[in-house]
Amino acid sequence: MSDTTYQPVQLKANDIDVYHGEFTIEDKNLTVDMNAIEYKAVEGLTLEVNTVQCRGLSAKNFLQNNDINVMASCLHVDFSKDELFELHVAPQFWKFLFDQNVNRKVSPISRLGVQNATATTCVRIAFKGFEMGIPFEFGAGGDPINGTLAMSQKEKIDAMQMWDGNPFFHYNTIKKINNHYRMQKKVAREQCTKCKSRYINSRCTFKLCSKCCVDRTTEGGGPCRVKAEPSRCKGKKRCNG
Known about the structure:
The chain has 241 residues and is of the alpha+beta class. It is 21% helix and 22% strand. The strands form 3 sheets. Strands 1-3-2 form a 3-stranded mixed β-sheet. A 3-stranded antiparallel β-sheet has the order 6-8-7.
Protein backbone atom coordinates (compact mmCIF):
# COMPACT_ATOMS: atom_id res chain seq x y z
CA MET A 1 0.00 0.00 0.00
CA SER A 2 1.34 3.41 -0.92
CA ASP A 3 2.00 6.00 1.80
CA THR A 4 -0.30 8.37 -0.07
CA THR A 5 -3.28 5.99 0.01
CA TYR A 6 -6.21 7.58 1.77
CA GLN A 7 -6.77 6.26 5.29
CA PRO A 8 -10.42 6.73 6.32
CA VAL A 9 -11.40 8.10 9.70
CA GLN A 10 -14.80 7.82 11.37
CA LEU A 11 -16.19 11.17 12.47
CA LYS A 12 -18.42 10.81 15.52
CA ALA A 13 -21.22 13.28 16.29
CA ASN A 14 -22.76 13.96 19.71
CA ASP A 15 -25.67 15.99 18.38
CA ILE A 16 -26.84 17.97 15.36
CA ASP A 17 -26.23 21.71 15.63
CA VAL A 18 -28.72 23.87 13.75
CA TYR A 19 -27.90 27.59 13.67
CA HIS A 20 -30.83 29.74 12.58
CA GLY A 21 -32.10 33.31 12.71
CA GLU A 22 -31.09 36.46 10.87
CA PHE A 23 -28.90 35.62 7.86
CA THR A 24 -26.64 38.12 6.10
CA ILE A 25 -24.49 38.29 2.97
CA GLU A 26 -22.41 41.12 4.45
CA ASP A 27 -19.19 40.70 6.43
CA LYS A 28 -20.76 40.94 9.89
CA ASN A 29 -19.89 39.50 13.27
CA LEU A 30 -21.93 36.49 14.34
CA THR A 31 -24.00 37.09 17.48
CA VAL A 32 -25.42 34.09 19.34
CA ASP A 33 -28.42 34.54 21.63
CA MET A 34 -27.23 32.55 24.66
CA ASN A 35 -30.77 32.50 26.06
CA ALA A 36 -32.18 30.90 22.91
CA ILE A 37 -30.27 27.61 22.77
CA GLU A 38 -32.41 24.48 23.02
CA TYR A 39 -31.95 20.74 22.67
CA LYS A 40 -34.83 19.00 20.94
CA ALA A 41 -35.55 15.34 20.31
CA VAL A 42 -36.77 14.69 16.75
CA GLU A 43 -38.66 11.56 15.82
CA GLY A 44 -36.58 9.30 13.60
CA LEU A 45 -33.23 10.80 14.68
CA THR A 46 -30.96 9.07 17.19
CA LEU A 47 -29.15 12.34 17.99
CA GLU A 48 -30.63 15.40 19.66
CA VAL A 49 -30.94 18.57 17.62
CA ASN A 50 -29.27 21.58 19.23
CA THR A 51 -30.98 24.74 17.95
CA VAL A 52 -29.00 27.98 18.26
CA GLN A 53 -30.60 31.33 17.42
CA CYS A 54 -28.26 33.93 15.89
CA ARG A 55 -28.03 37.37 14.30
CA GLY A 56 -25.75 38.20 11.39
CA LEU A 57 -25.37 34.55 10.43
CA SER A 58 -23.53 33.36 7.33
CA ALA A 59 -21.50 30.30 6.42
CA LYS A 60 -18.36 32.43 6.40
CA ASN A 61 -18.64 33.82 9.91
CA PHE A 62 -19.92 30.48 11.19
CA LEU A 63 -16.61 28.89 10.16
CA GLN A 64 -14.66 31.89 11.47
CA ASN A 65 -16.21 31.29 14.89
CA ASN A 66 -15.52 27.55 14.85
CA ASP A 67 -12.83 26.48 17.30
CA ILE A 68 -11.98 22.82 16.44
CA ASN A 69 -10.58 21.39 13.20
CA VAL A 70 -12.82 18.27 13.07
CA MET A 71 -15.94 20.46 13.27
CA ALA A 72 -14.94 23.11 10.74
CA SER A 73 -17.67 22.41 8.19
CA CYS A 74 -21.31 23.28 7.75
CA LEU A 75 -24.30 22.95 5.41
CA HIS A 76 -25.90 26.24 4.43
CA VAL A 77 -29.63 25.67 3.90
CA ASP A 78 -31.32 28.38 1.82
CA PHE A 79 -35.00 27.82 0.99
CA SER A 80 -34.96 30.70 -1.51
CA LYS A 81 -32.65 28.86 -3.91
CA ASP A 82 -33.12 25.85 -6.16
CA GLU A 83 -29.91 24.38 -4.74
CA LEU A 84 -31.12 23.96 -1.19
CA PHE A 85 -27.82 22.83 0.37
CA GLU A 86 -24.34 24.33 0.07
CA LEU A 87 -21.34 22.71 1.75
CA HIS A 88 -18.77 25.03 3.34
CA VAL A 89 -15.51 23.67 4.74
CA ALA A 90 -12.48 25.27 6.39
CA PRO A 91 -9.02 24.14 5.18
CA GLN A 92 -8.19 22.74 8.64
CA PHE A 93 -11.00 20.21 8.26
CA TRP A 94 -9.74 19.03 4.85
CA LYS A 95 -6.22 18.65 6.26
CA PHE A 96 -7.51 16.50 9.12
CA LEU A 97 -9.76 14.42 6.86
CA PHE A 98 -7.19 13.61 4.19
CA ASP A 99 -4.07 13.38 6.36
CA GLN A 100 -2.42 10.08 7.27
CA ASN A 101 -3.48 8.44 10.54
CA VAL A 102 -0.08 9.05 12.11
CA ASN A 103 -0.49 12.82 11.61
CA ARG A 104 -4.15 13.20 12.60
CA LYS A 105 -4.88 15.22 15.74
CA VAL A 106 -7.91 17.00 17.10
CA SER A 107 -6.66 20.56 17.52
CA PRO A 108 -7.91 24.12 18.05
CA ILE A 109 -8.42 26.67 15.32
CA SER A 110 -7.57 30.32 15.88
CA ARG A 111 -10.92 32.11 15.92
CA LEU A 112 -10.92 35.69 14.67
CA GLY A 113 -7.43 36.32 16.02
CA VAL A 114 -8.06 34.62 19.37
CA GLN A 115 -5.06 32.33 19.86
CA ASN A 116 -5.73 30.65 23.21
CA ALA A 117 -8.15 27.74 23.59
CA THR A 118 -10.49 28.37 26.53
CA ALA A 119 -11.90 25.82 28.99
CA THR A 120 -14.90 25.02 26.77
CA THR A 121 -12.71 24.42 23.71
CA CYS A 122 -10.25 22.28 25.70
CA VAL A 123 -13.05 20.04 26.99
CA ARG A 124 -14.60 19.64 23.53
CA ILE A 125 -11.20 18.83 21.99
CA ALA A 126 -10.39 16.22 24.64
CA PHE A 127 -13.84 14.63 24.37
CA LYS A 128 -13.52 14.32 20.58
CA GLY A 129 -10.15 12.62 21.05
CA PHE A 130 -11.70 10.35 23.70
CA GLU A 131 -14.64 9.33 21.50
CA MET A 132 -12.69 8.94 18.26
CA GLY A 133 -9.64 7.32 19.81
CA ILE A 134 -7.13 9.69 18.22
CA PRO A 135 -4.55 12.12 19.66
CA PHE A 136 -5.42 15.72 20.46
CA GLU A 137 -3.71 18.94 21.49
CA PHE A 138 -4.84 22.19 23.12
CA GLY A 139 -2.21 24.33 21.39
CA ALA A 140 0.51 26.39 23.05
CA GLY A 141 -1.95 28.78 24.68
CA GLY A 142 -4.69 26.29 25.61
CA ASP A 143 -5.79 26.78 29.21
CA PRO A 144 -8.56 24.69 30.88
CA ILE A 145 -8.75 27.28 33.69
CA ASN A 146 -9.61 30.13 31.31
CA GLY A 147 -13.40 30.54 31.21
CA THR A 148 -16.47 28.76 32.54
CA LEU A 149 -18.11 25.47 31.58
CA ALA A 150 -21.75 24.64 30.95
CA MET A 151 -23.43 21.54 32.35
CA SER A 152 -22.87 19.70 29.03
CA GLN A 153 -19.08 20.20 29.32
CA LYS A 154 -19.17 19.09 32.97
CA GLU A 155 -20.86 15.87 31.81
CA LYS A 156 -18.11 15.33 29.22
CA ILE A 157 -15.45 15.68 31.93
CA ASP A 158 -17.30 13.16 34.11
CA ALA A 159 -17.44 10.70 31.18
CA MET A 160 -13.64 10.89 30.81
CA GLN A 161 -12.84 10.32 34.50
CA MET A 162 -11.64 6.70 34.09
CA TRP A 163 -9.91 7.27 30.73
CA ASP A 164 -6.13 6.81 30.74
CA GLY A 165 -5.72 9.79 28.44
CA ASN A 166 -7.82 12.16 30.58
CA PRO A 167 -5.99 15.54 30.45
CA PHE A 168 -8.04 16.94 33.35
CA PHE A 169 -6.80 14.47 35.96
CA HIS A 170 -5.00 17.28 37.79
CA TYR A 171 -8.03 19.58 37.81
CA ASN A 172 -11.18 19.91 39.89
CA THR A 173 -14.45 21.25 38.50
CA ILE A 174 -15.91 23.84 40.85
CA LYS A 175 -19.54 24.91 40.65
CA LYS A 176 -19.73 28.66 40.15
CA ILE A 177 -23.34 29.77 39.69
CA ASN A 178 -26.49 28.14 38.35
CA ASN A 179 -25.37 25.60 35.71
CA HIS A 180 -21.92 27.08 35.16
CA TYR A 181 -18.67 25.51 36.36
CA ARG A 182 -15.03 26.53 36.49
CA MET A 183 -11.95 24.31 36.48
CA GLN A 184 -9.28 24.72 39.12
CA LYS A 185 -5.90 23.03 39.32
CA LYS A 186 -5.53 20.60 42.20
CA VAL A 187 -3.09 21.60 44.89
CA ALA A 188 -0.20 19.15 44.95
CA ARG A 189 -0.13 17.13 48.19
CA GLU A 190 3.21 16.59 49.90
CA GLN A 191 4.30 13.42 51.64
CA CYS A 192 5.13 13.41 55.35
CA THR A 193 8.82 14.21 55.83
CA LYS A 194 9.12 11.47 58.50
CA CYS A 195 7.10 8.39 57.55
CA LYS A 196 7.04 9.12 53.79
CA SER A 197 3.77 7.16 53.48
CA ARG A 198 1.06 9.67 54.46
CA TYR A 199 0.36 13.24 53.40
CA ILE A 200 1.29 16.25 55.53
CA ASN A 201 -1.18 18.56 57.22
CA SER A 202 -0.91 21.75 55.18
CA ARG A 203 -0.61 23.89 58.34
CA CYS A 204 1.79 21.63 60.28
CA THR A 205 4.95 23.42 61.46
CA PHE A 206 7.07 20.33 60.91
CA LYS A 207 5.62 19.21 57.54
CA LEU A 208 4.33 16.01 59.12
CA CYS A 209 1.17 13.95 58.87
CA SER A 210 -1.17 13.95 61.87
CA LYS A 211 0.23 10.73 63.37
CA CYS A 212 3.88 11.76 63.11
CA CYS A 213 3.05 15.22 64.46
CA VAL A 214 1.39 13.61 67.49
CA ASP A 215 4.46 11.42 68.04
CA ARG A 216 6.86 14.36 67.78
CA THR A 217 4.98 16.73 70.06
CA THR A 218 4.25 14.00 72.62
CA GLU A 219 7.94 13.16 72.76
CA GLY A 220 8.78 16.80 73.53
CA GLY A 221 9.66 17.88 70.03
CA GLY A 222 8.16 21.32 70.54
CA PRO A 223 4.68 22.70 69.82
CA CYS A 224 3.03 22.70 66.39
CA ARG A 225 1.10 25.82 65.39
CA VAL A 226 -2.01 23.75 64.62
CA LYS A 227 -4.16 23.84 67.75
CA ALA A 228 -5.45 20.50 69.11
CA GLU A 229 -4.58 18.18 71.99
CA PRO A 230 -2.29 15.32 70.87
CA SER A 231 -3.93 12.95 73.30
CA ARG A 232 -7.21 13.41 71.45
CA CYS A 233 -5.86 13.59 67.93
CA LYS A 234 -5.52 9.84 67.25
CA GLY A 235 -3.75 10.54 63.98
CA LYS A 236 -6.82 12.21 62.44
CA LYS A 237 -6.78 15.82 63.68
CA ARG A 238 -4.16 18.54 63.39
CA CYS A 239 -2.38 18.68 66.72
CA ASN A 240 -0.32 20.88 69.02
CA GLY A 241 1.98 19.52 71.65
